[in-house]
Amino acid sequence: MQFRIDNPERIDSEAIVRQHRTGDEIIVQFSNPCYSEKLLRQINELCERFTSNFQVRFYGHYQGAFDCGNLRFLPAVRSLAVDCLQAVENHRSLTELPDLDELSLGVYLLDDPQILGGENFKNLKELTISETKKRNIDLSHLADYRLLRSLFVGGQTKGIDAIAQLTALDELRLGQIGKTVPLGFVNKMANLGSLKLILGGRANIDEIQHGQLKTLSVVRVQGFESFNSSALPGLQDLHIEDQIRIPDLKFSADNKNLTKIVIVNCKGLMRVSGLPSLINLNQLRISGTGLNIEEILASGLPPQLKTFAFYTGKSSLNKAIRDRLDELGYKELERAA
């Protein structure tokens, strides 16, 4: 869980230490320049004390640009978010933080194509790069990020093929990537376990053929109308949401590793076939589609399925379906172990 401290006037270090001991991620964040050098240095002492689950964030600053020069008072920061900002000053101060492990960079008016060339960035383990007005950030520098495990790229495509060289990367999230941008580089990433596509546009992801990928999410991708499940035989978790043009989903024994399927707000979806062949499927959640519950039940469900939820746009019908599924022995929610 996350515990956020907004625009603090003072730092209660011992209270933060106690909260950190619970295992929560602590985020100290500022939406306006209410911080002083003294306050930031106190936060830096906590950065020295904690090796994980402690982030410092600067966002908003609607009165003007955030001055990254203030980061000189946080030399020990490991997790830093400078995001949801229109503009910044002295942004090269970001490249002078020697202990940085995690960075979220989202400055809409940032115009520095080579910002990712900072030497200290090569030690990052997690990186988020959000959309900028010119979308001109050169991603080719990512080829040197050998420790990177998690990456989000929003709206940036220059040099995107360099992502294929991230041999340690486990989680890749791509946002607002246009349909003309090839994604075949994903096939070269043997250790990639999770892929999420959000916004942007493309008719399908047939070019992605990856035997080891375990988790796939496709959310609000404009024009998405077909999904070739056989190209991802290692898939365990599938999430498809807000895809109104996709008419059917076909599964087979090639997808025997699937344990969870979530389908949300896919109103054009009229057919799902092959569910009985998913011998390891444990959880199935369907909401806001054109599917018929009776047809799904009649076609059969895999024997290992324990959690099955099906929702329509009508509360009375939802209740009747829930009662039916309860009688058949299916849970509505997955219970924690």
What is the element layout, followed by pairings?
Blueprint: E1 2-6, H1 13-21, E2 25-30, H2 37-49, E3 54-60, E4 66-67, E5 79-85, E6 88-89, E7 102-107, E8 126-129, E9 150-154, E10 171-175, E11 194-198, E12 215-219, E13 237-241, E14 248-250, E15 260-266, E16 271-273, E17 283-289, H3 293-299, E18 307-311, H4 315-327
Parallel strand pairs: 1-2, 2-3, 3-5, 4-6, 5-7, 7-8, 8-9, 9-10, 10-11, 11-12, 12-13, 13-15, 14-16, 15-17, 17-18
Task: Describe the overall structure.
The chain is an alpha/beta fold. The chain has two domains: 1-153, Alpha-Beta Horseshoe (Leucine-rich repeat, LRR (right-handed beta-alpha superhelix)); 170-337, Leucine-rich repeat, LRR (right-handed beta-alpha superhelix) (Alpha-Beta Horseshoe), CATH 3.80.10.10. The chain contains four helices and 18 strands. The strands form three sheets. Strands 1-2-3-5-7-8-9-10-11-12-13-15-17-18 form a 14-stranded parallel β-sheet. Strands 4-6 form a two-stranded parallel ribbon. It has a two-stranded parallel ribbon with strand order 14-16. β2, α2 and β3 (54-60) form a beta-alpha-beta unit. The longest helix has 13 residues, at 37-49. The two termini are 18 Å apart.
What labels would you give this structure?
single chain; 337 residues; alpha/beta; Leucine-rich repeat, LRR (right-handed beta-alpha superhelix); 4 helices; 18 strands; globular
| Rg value | 23 Å
Indicate the CATH class of the largest domain. Answer: Alpha Beta
Low-confidence stretches: none
Q: Looking at the chains present, what oligomeric state does this protein adopt? A: single chain
Bulk shape:
globular
- Percent of residues in helices: 10-25%
Strand content bin: 25-35%
SSE class: alpha/beta
CATH topology of the largest domain: Leucine-rich repeat, LRR (right-handed beta-alpha superhelix)
Average pLDDT level: 96
CATH architecture of the largest domain: Alpha-Beta Horseshoe
List the strand order in the largest sheet: 1-2-3-5-7-8-9-10-11-12-13-15-17-18
SSE order, one letter for each helix or strand: EHEHEEEEEEEEEEEEEEEHEH
Distance between the termini: 18 Å
Largest sheet: 14 strands, parallel
Count of DSSP-assigned helices: 4
Quickly count the domains: 2
Q: Give the total of beta strands.
A: 18
| CATH homologous superfamily title of the largest domain | Ribonuclease Inhibitor
